[in-house]
# Entry
Amino acid sequence: MKRFVCMVLVLFLCSIAVDPTLAQMAHSPGQQLMETAEKMNDILIRLNDDSRNDARKQMRLLCDAVYERFSLAETARLSLAGNWDKRTDTEKKAFIALFGWFLESVYLPWADRYDGGQVVFVREKIEKNRALVYVRVHHGMLRIPVTVRMHLTGAGQWMVYDVAVLGINLVGNLRAQFNHIIHRHSYDKVIQIMEEKTTGHTGCSGYQ
# Structure
């Protein structure tokens, strides 16, 4: 199941089909997400082209595209839930950085396994500075519903902070794991586990 969800997330982030009505909504969350996904799709196609020899450059571009639309700080805050407010500013900053490396270590290795697909936007729902974007991932005969949660920044950018695939919610899943570890052990144990899982991982910083 983990492998399947990883593949769906990669497909979601990296391929897209444009809904004509959405294309007219230049500043909508769906449109902004679409533009980033199209960019990532082009990068992944080049990354998996055996005739090319610029994989390092393409990975750097892929990392840039991801962080252009992904709100790492918000995802980290929500994943830590009530334990976030108990942390000092220094701890929060360190957690966000480690959290980013942790996610990269899980999902970045799937980038070179991208074998195409299509993401079709269904609709979006906006409430003040929050939005839900509903899409379907088409991969072979599969039609998989995905819900993307986004928030609006002061710069007018809609940023992704959560994705739900087949009832598996990224933030909810991480929150449950972190809460379980903190309840049974401590916050320091969460940090220890994340550090162990990212040992030797250079992530996006390795392509700078």
